[in-house]
Amino acid sequence: METDKRKSIDRILKAGSIAVVGASADTRKLGYMTLETLIFSGYQGNIYPVNPRGGSILDHDVYTRIEDLPEIPDLMVVIIPAQAVPGLLRKAAESGIAAALILSAGFGDAGRHDLDEELRSIVDSTGIRILGPNIQGVAYLPNKLCAMFFPIVKTPGPLTIISQSGSVTAALMEWATNEGIGINAAVNLGNQIDLRDADYLSYFADDDRTGVIAVYLEGIKNGRDFLKALRLVAPKKPVVILKSGRSQAGRLSAASHTGALAVNQAIFESVCRQYGIQSAENLENLYLYAKSLALLKQPNGNRLLSISSSGGLGTLTADEVENQGLVLPKLSREFIQELEKLDLSPLATLSNPLDLDEQEAAIFEEVAVVADRYNQADIILLNFGDPIWGGTKMVLELKRKLNSVLAVVYLGGGNEEIEARKTLPAAGIPVFNSPESAVKGIGTIVRRANYLGKIKSGCIKAKPVNY
């Protein structure tokens, strides 16, 4: 990645002052929503609304021109008609503004490729950096920055989002926030006139607060740069990518949405496998895989022990295990003998999957601790199919006692489940909706661990793929 692009992205995300050009007092307009989100997200820098009408919006004085601002802002957010944007950018560059976040649509996304070319020409001639156009915005929680028209997000966490779709960006942000996982950053790509997917991937590869990168793409602007970025980021950060436009109808939709060209899906899948990137089949799995990689520590192997409150959940776990390249190891004789000393239900099934036929949290804890002591598995999955009284507190304590990776499925658990879903992810323990989703998430971290192991041993010899 070019040094000046890295510095530009860093300055944008850590902006100490922002001008919002096109700010509006009309609560129905994006100019109001964006200003409101920026203010109520807790941003601490100076905010300067700009609108020819002047006045005041949300207790902020409105400036009629960018030339009248009391300082040169680090970032200019643009929400004005597309045809007026080139002129504004030229004035901004003359005023010393280094970067513009263009929320306005109506460029190449609407068939006005001439406007795209004009923006590129302005970038080349002035050096101003452009995010977008046609984007929802950008968020960077370490700076309490949420420069987008929605949502307002305040929960920091390990998830970094790079997405061509504003709706996908918002969905991932809200899912992570609602589960208590939180986000580090969210960047909406739009038409990618200047700063592109590869630039952001390269930047976040070296961002200490990024635990995992979730990417949604409808096409790739420059295959060579994108491949170079993947080679850089993959050993440093886990990456999950959902690329849409796999069908003919999807490719046409992607082209009309962002003006991007979809690459061949087979080639794309090959690249993902080659560089240890997790490819997602759909939006739900994009979030599932990212959540798993963000919260689950890397296991030492692929052995899974399922401990459940009902036989059905264990069976569903077993069905998905083989698909993910995992194994359900046979329980050792010594471990079973230890289990027989515990006060287990006479209906308990002492095999893997292990059905305790039990709703008491203390029993689950005892069994998991003994299993860990006898090294029965690399990952222990607690399948709670009933209200497990005190289960949330038990799981928090159990995680500190285990060497094995710990994951939890909770369904049909009433208020106990509600408490677990609020509390556990914030403590670094994912709560999955079903055994199948849990095993898919676990499979993702096992593949990541295998990839890093091959790098460490020198087994991986990546070869470029030509587009």
Structure explained in plain terms:
- This protein has 467 residues and is α/β, with parallel strands linked by helices.
- It folds into two domains: 3-293, Succinyl-CoA synthetase domains (Rossmann fold); 298-453, Rossmann fold (3-Layer(aba) Sandwich).
- 40% of the residues lie in helices and 17% in strands.
- The strands form four sheets. A seven-stranded mixed β-sheet has the order 9-8-11-10-12-13-14, with helices on both faces. It has a five-stranded parallel β-sheet with strand order 2-1-5-6-7, sandwiched between helices.
- Helix 1 packs across helix 6, helix 3 packs parallel to helix 4 and helix 11 (311-321) runs parallel beside helix 16.
- The chain is elongated, with a radius of gyration of 25 Å.
- It starts with a helix and ends in a 10-residue tail after the last helix.
SSE blueprint:
Elements: H1 3-13, E1 17-21, H2 30-40, E2 46-50, E3 56-57, E4 60-61, E5 75-78, H3 85-95, E6 99-102, H4 113-126, E7 129-131, E8 137-140, E9 145-148, E10 156-163, H5 166-178, E11 183-188, H6 197-205, E12 212-217, H7 223-233, E13 239-243, H8 248-258, H9 265-274, E14 278-279, H10 283-295, E15 304-308, H11 311-321, H12 333-339, E16 354-355, H13 361-373, E17 379-384, H14 391-401, E18 405-410, H15 414-423, E19 431-432, H16 435-457
Parallel strand pairs: 1-2, 1-5, 5-6, 6-7, 10-11, 10-12, 12-13, 13-14, 15-16, 15-17, 17-18, 18-19
Antiparallel strand pairs: 3-4, 8-9, 8-11
